[in-house]
Amino acid sequence: MSGADPWARLRAATPARIGLGRSGAGLPTRANLEFQFAHARARDAVHAPLDLAMLKDQLEGLDPVTVTSAAPDRATYLRRPDLGRRLSDEADLSGVTGEVLFVLGDGLSSAALEAHGAAVLRACLDRLGDTDVARPVIATQSRVALGDAIAQATGARIAVMLIGERPGLTVADSLGAYITYMARPGTPDSRRNCISNIHTRGGLSADLAAHKICWLLRQALRLELTGTGLKENAGALEAPGTTVGLPDS
Amino acid sequence: MAYRTLLGGETFRFDTLAQVMACATPARSGDELAGIAAESDVQRVAAQMVLADLPLSTFLTEALIPYETDEVTRLILDTHDAAAFAPVRSMTLGDFRDWLLSDAASPATLAALAPGLTPEMVAAAAKLMRNRDLIAVARKCHVTTAFRTTLGLEGRLGSRLQPNHPADDLQGIAASTLDGLSYGIGDAVIGINPATDNIPTATELLLMLDELIAKYDIPTQTCVLTHVTNTIEMIGAGAPVDLVFQSVAGTEKANEGFGVTLAMLDDARQAALSLNRGTVGTNVMYFETGQGSALSADAHHGIDQQTLEARAQAVTRAFDPLIVNTVVGFIGPEYLFDGREIIRAGLEDHFCGKLMGVPMGCDVCYTNHAEADQNDMDVLMTLLADARVHFLIGVPGADDIMLNYQSLSFHDIAYLRNTFGLRAAPEFETWLARTGIVSGTGQLTDDRAATLRLLEAG
């Protein structure tokens, strides 16, 4: 046992920065520099634009419609969340109709949408069978509530916003899903259900996320509500995928 | 009624008390986003001059948000203690600031005054204060609370151990918890933010933490930070709930955005009290607040975010909390743009809470889309420790892998204790000393044998 890293076993259980060691009460030099590197990368992720062509390729056959919010650029988007919740004047949603609406938003991490958006959407569509699902909408410079404006414009009964979450140090490509019954501008957050941390470094797999999203969708359509009145209780998958993994270091 | 002042040959006019308050607030992005910030630095000073001449009692007769339509206003005015307020009732805001800084405002005097102060009064006083003033006064406000540990005692610095995991994995959370314990963290609470709003998961997490502190015989309290309605359900189902958590805001409408009412909070507190799980005290509530929450819920009524934060703290005061913290840099740069604004807000929030008698702590934190970094957090945590903050939050390596933001590391809290001679809560410190993690005077030692023993037992 002597010489072995006593944290090795525990480190396998979480991507958290445990067992870093210490210099006095301070961080050792190596750990300190690794942290600075991760922060620099996360800052870059916030500002990277969505690769729209790549996302459209991933959505081939699903005929997505693209809109932007009223925030013209990233700098404005970061300071003006109100603009990120409104559609730009040019947005055209005339070809989008259906009871259930999926919106794919860049949010604060376009990398998250590029990595997991199409996979989650397709896994949901596989489960929704004969449900009346609208053409998917891709939305850039988007906040969660932009889904409300899009749902209103299309008349959807329920909106699922798949959106990039704020980049963290360990995971810069985490996707969140917000499910809102009768989403309309002004809907309070307490009327949404959220599935967060959809990613491959210890988060939810696309398949498990879709399982939970679709469970919530069905309950929402039956009970005609989402939010604090609807508790997510989907239970485990029959054969769960890898939901806990190692950080790729 | 309009407010006017002459400054540098120019007349400044403010139409409402709310406008005076908003314009008098040190600059920050959230008030600019709301369109209520001062238009120039000179206008800001003019508003501060108006504020300095206003009687403190103005806030008892002029509600910023109408009494009839907002239950937070009703709570503030209906529970105001006129007898406690009497010693300062004839002061202006300027007089009040001077008095707070003087020796006459002793710890005992300030403690007796707290129930006589409304959030609007303390928010207004903060607007007239520099950062050093906020520290000097807050340090004189002693607030003690207890459940299984006693927090807020002289020379102590509490800590929340936050072992979050993106998939709520029990082993992963236990691993982070052991890491934190090895730095002496966790005397305020071991508290998990669950990744999903799911009662079976929250219950599993609660059972795991309860078993863990029983196995190691650690005197502390645990919490799963889920919605208050979930916690009420869990208590009903017999889960081992120590503390009830809820995020709250400073207006009825913003609280509606959180899905809570004052009546629900009272029900939850009664339910937790009925379990009778505390050993040295009965403070069973844990609240989080933060500047910008009302604006983000479109429920700010034209009131500046610092004043609304103080009102949120007044909400927490009504429920005798064990711990309250502002999540100061969490909401994002649209509310507090950079390190400078985050540091200022952290000191304001701590000052306002303590002056009202709230056991105020802080999540010293920032997000990756804010113009801030760990150096800014070093400054704020050191200032707050000097101001005798109730508790701070620590996560492994300062990186919360579930909520995707940076808080303090366990190392940081150990630094504050070691460098400034601060100590953990006495009950918890006894356990730390017994395991060999800290020295007889409460400092983390360089001896790693205690950590190895902790890991081998796990």
UniProtKB/TrEMBL annotation, chain B:
<keyword id="KW-0456">Lyase</keyword>
<feature type="binding site">
    <location>
        <position position="288"/>
    </location>
    <ligand>
        <name>substrate</name>
    </ligand>
</feature>
<keyword id="KW-0170">Cobalt</keyword>
<dbReference type="Pfam" id="PF06751">
    <property type="entry name" value="EutB"/>
</dbReference>
<dbReference type="GO" id="GO:0031471">
    <property type="term" value="C:ethanolamine degradation polyhedral organelle"/>
</dbReference>
<comment type="pathway">
    <text>Amine and polyamine degradation; ethanolamine degradation.</text>
</comment>
<dbReference type="GO" id="GO:0008851">
    <property type="term" value="F:ethanolamine ammonia-lyase activity"/>
</dbReference>
<feature type="binding site">
    <location>
        <position position="193"/>
    </location>
    <ligand>
        <name>substrate</name>
    </ligand>
</feature>
<dbReference type="InterPro" id="IPR044941">
    <property type="entry name" value="EutB_N_sf"/>
</dbReference>
<protein>
    <recommendedName>
        <fullName>Ethanolamine ammonia-lyase large subunit</fullName>
        <ecNumber>4.3.1.7</ecNumber>
    </recommendedName>
</protein>
<comment type="subunit">
    <text>The basic unit is a heterodimer which dimerizes to form tetramers. The heterotetramers trimerize; 6 large subunits form a core ring with 6 small subunits projecting outwards.</text>
</comment>
<keyword id="KW-1283">Bacterial microcompartment</keyword>
<dbReference type="InterPro" id="IPR044939">
    <property type="entry name" value="EutB_dom_2_sf"/>
</dbReference>
<comment type="similarity">
    <text>Belongs to the EutB family.</text>
</comment>
<feature type="binding site">
    <location>
        <position position="246"/>
    </location>
    <ligand>
        <name>adenosylcob(III)alamin</name>
    </ligand>
</feature>
<feature type="binding site">
    <location>
        <position position="194"/>
    </location>
    <ligand>
        <name>adenosylcob(III)alamin</name>
    </ligand>
</feature>
<keyword id="KW-0846">Cobalamin</keyword>
<feature type="binding site">
    <location>
        <position position="363"/>
    </location>
    <ligand>
        <name>substrate</name>
    </ligand>
</feature>
<dbReference type="GO" id="GO:0046336">
    <property type="term" value="P:ethanolamine catabolic process"/>
</dbReference>
<feature type="binding site">
    <location>
        <position position="296"/>
    </location>
    <ligand>
        <name>adenosylcob(III)alamin</name>
    </ligand>
</feature>
<feature type="binding site">
    <location>
        <begin position="160"/>
        <end position="162"/>
    </location>
    <ligand>
        <name>substrate</name>
    </ligand>
</feature>
<dbReference type="GO" id="GO:0006520">
    <property type="term" value="P:amino acid metabolic process"/>
</dbReference>
<dbReference type="InterPro" id="IPR010628">
    <property type="entry name" value="EutB"/>
</dbReference>
<comment type="function">
    <text>Catalyzes the deamination of various vicinal amino-alcohols to oxo compounds. Allows this organism to utilize ethanolamine as the sole source of nitrogen and carbon in the presence of vitamin B12.</text>
</comment>
<dbReference type="GO" id="GO:0031419">
    <property type="term" value="F:cobalamin binding"/>
</dbReference>
<dbReference type="GO" id="GO:0009350">
    <property type="term" value="C:ethanolamine ammonia-lyase complex"/>
</dbReference>
<dbReference type="GO" id="GO:0005829">
    <property type="term" value="C:cytosol"/>
</dbReference>
<dbReference type="InterPro" id="IPR013785">
    <property type="entry name" value="Aldolase_TIM"/>
</dbReference>
<feature type="binding site">
    <location>
        <position position="402"/>
    </location>
    <ligand>
        <name>adenosylcob(III)alamin</name>
    </ligand>
</feature>
